[in-house]
């Protein structure tokens, strides 16, 4: 392959050539299974599920492909004989950051699991030219740089020009009756965009299934090339901007036209290609719902609903009722957050000018909804739930009204949707609501990221768990086996030393692998409460300054977090953490008892390094706000002990490991809602009445923290004077007490390692294999691996 690609042999080649040669080999190695999977699906006319997602946060793929193909060790060994280190060449691959955080990474875990569980399920999204920005710290401030992940090419994708489709925007549309009596649209002055698919094989683990991730790229249609040169360049730039850059918003919604264009672009392209593929099988459009399931991942692809309606009405000439029936049966929707700013809504003017025909259809869906509900529900409820209201189109309402299934992503989150956030809809459509707790793939997050732990587990209980993760429960038999607990401790120590090397190399900070590695890795958002973590660090710092002999076990606090570029408050928190790190890391009197490591540019590849080295998993969001969380699952699977509020999937983690093996603190969701109701939370009182807390908070404004005056003042005010929206001060004392408990437990190594072991043993249910099997069985009604049925129980 090296000779074919680069006309060179191994001795002449460097890492980059070796990486691309190997990547190409792997791709051709799986090509046969890729086409035979497709042929089989066609031949058996199997129902297909399509996961529509704005984000797929894949991470590097070389090793995961090798693992899933069952050739990781062979390739590693073969390369070694040639004097090549696999670990070195995998670093060449760009880490495609086509997602913001948990939502995008979940989509990536799901497609890996679908292929592994032999579910005919594929991803559909956008091939963003630039992934999520690259984060740099300059003087402690976050600076955003472009992430040009395609610069050196992408070995995994195949451009499929022959499968391109056209997506239309703008223009005028009117309906005219045809000779057959159909009302069909006529268009004038539309802007046509060519959507070109790039397909990536998604390889199942230990089987012959290879599914497809189809990402669309926006290009200028060929006929437009005939225009004059400058108009051509301008139009090309405008069109290509659609698939240029991923929006760096986590749960902040930005009302930007380009975002709406992106959403319609991949929705329309995806659905057109699904229908084209379906019709190739010679089946009647009337049976579409028997062969196709489309999943709407968050509201971003909610235009799937009017777009499918448009194609069924305008292209297939079905009547409204019939088309609507098919659409509801095809569509299902997942809600991923209750944060109100993430509930997308578009101004009517914007959507009706950009997508005139789609807007007509949305209006008609809304009109019929109101008409149908009038007889059944109160006017108030109908007004609160209709799609077009207050001059806006509400995407969540569209997704709910047009789908047969609506799910939340953890038990608590689904309960809150039913009882609070979507309560009106729950009363209208009770049977549509269901829960599907998130999951993670054990292949990337244990088998690849933590090879020493994988080996230890295999030694103890065999390797059935690799396919059936709940088998990890067998580890419980070793809970009192000192030797195993010591081996577990050794592995953690090795992983920590490994990570410490990285920290020294990349950040020039020396950390002691015998310290507690306390990890909070997730997007920077006020509700996730990185500030609570920081206030506790400041408390420890003050304690040590007052009495250098204060008896605490040394700690390394590890943060990894990007803030949305427009989210000023989150960026201030980053700066503040970095300033506190400057202060503490350079204070010799602290005697290395505290260190703060804020990893720059946190993403999938860094998570793979940090998670195996973690002792403590910080999951400290304000109860009710974190829909699920998934780093909580990855960290427990790698033997970290969770320090958590009863939020999201933390509740289910506690149920699995028992209260003795997780440290829980803080308000419950019920208490939070109670505060909202009676308005009785006054953060200022906590400042006034709690001297310890007061002293800590004063460090933000009294000059203790270097070079963060503005940030310290703003943050102080938000907590003390402007209401403390996420109850940081309320939970402070309990958090400090919980941290003390951690300190005490950690000093008893056997107890600690037993907790770690029980966490690993209890993590089995959080495999995304189970999650997708439940989607396949309960929502999509598609087939799956015959022996996987028992995993559902
Ligand atoms: C999120 C939730 O915040 C997170 O709790 C959840 O685990 C994830 C996947 O379901 O979805 N919702 C959201 O908008 N983002 C998330 O990560 C960005």
Strand content: 5-15%
Bound ions, cofactors and other small molecules, one mention each: ligand GL7
* Overall pLDDT score: 96
> What overall form do the CA principal axes indicate?
globular
CATH superfamily of the largest domain: Glycogen Phosphorylase B
3D structure, described in words:
With 793 residues, this protein is of the alpha/beta class. The protein has two domains: 45-60 and 95-438 and 774-792, Glycogen Phosphorylase B (Rossmann fold); 465-669 and 726-766, Glycogen Phosphorylase B (Rossmann fold). Helices cover 48% and strands 15% of the residues. Strands 1, 2, 5, 6, 9, 10, 11, 12, 16 and 17 form a ten-stranded mixed β-sheet that branches. The chain has a six-stranded parallel β-sheet with strand order 20-19-18-21-22-23, sandwiched between helices. The longest helix has 29 residues, at 15-43. It starts with a helix and ends in a 13-residue tail after the last helix. 50% of the residues are buried. Ligand GL7 binds at residues 100-103, 106, 250-251, 336-337, 342, 409, 438, 626-630, 648. Its cofactor is pyridoxal 5'-phosphate. It is an enzyme of class 2 (transferase). Belongs to the glycogen phosphorylase family. Pfam families: Phosphorylase (PF00343). GO terms for molecular function: 1,4-alpha-oligoglucan phosphorylase activity.
